[in-house]
Write a structure and sequence with these properties.
By secondary structure, this protein is of the alpha+beta class. The chain has a single domain, classed as STM4215-like, CATH 3.30.2000. Helix content is about 30%, strand content about 40%. Strands 1-2-3-5-4 form a 5-stranded mixed beta sheet. Strand 2 and strand 3 (about 60-75) form a beta hairpin. The chain is elongated. It starts with a helix and ends with a helix.
Length: about 140
């Protein structure tokens, strides 16, 4: 089975960067998405790449549970607190049950939780967690199909 985290990461990055609704919330309409945040990156931005994959296969189906975390940082002024929440809402809609992950069938796509925090520097930090159950048919099942 291919790595579901790699496939998800690529799909996640594309979905975030091409979302018109998310772009409308960024200055200049350009969504800043990072896996590794550059030093002194301007706020707001989204950081992706934290995930956990749990194997759930059997003899017929290759399956995994994927838990993915998305981080949103916004400026340390009161309107930005709401901006982070608005961005979180858009991202929740992007990863709806129909969210396609190339090479996998998405059996379950669900939002788990959101935490809206204030970092020590005063910036607003939202943390979103998603759970995806992904499957592919095992090669033996395809041959016996």
């Amino acid at each position: 089975m291919a790595d579901p985290a790699a496939a998800f990461h690529a799909a996640e990055d594309t979905a975030l960067r091409t979302s018109a609704d998310l772009a409308a919330l960024f200055p200049g309409g350009v969504v800043r998405v990072y896996s590794v945040v550059p030093q002194n990156a301007p706020l707001p931005f989204v950081r992706i790449g934290d995930d956990q994959v749990i194997e759930d296969s059997d003899e017929c189906v290759s399956a995994s549970d994927l838990y993915a975390t998305v981080h949103i940082w916004t400026k340390p002024d009161p309107p930005s607190v709401q901006l982070g929440r608005q961005m979180a809402g858009v991202i929740r809609q992007l990863f709806a049950p129909e969210f396609p992950i190339p090479g996998f069938d998405t059996v379950l796509a669900r939002f788990v939780d959101a935490r809206h925090l204030t970092d020590p520097d005063g910036s607003s930090h939202s943390v979103l967690t998603f759970h995806f159950a992904l499957t592919t048919l095992a090669p033996e099942a395809l041959q016996n199909g």
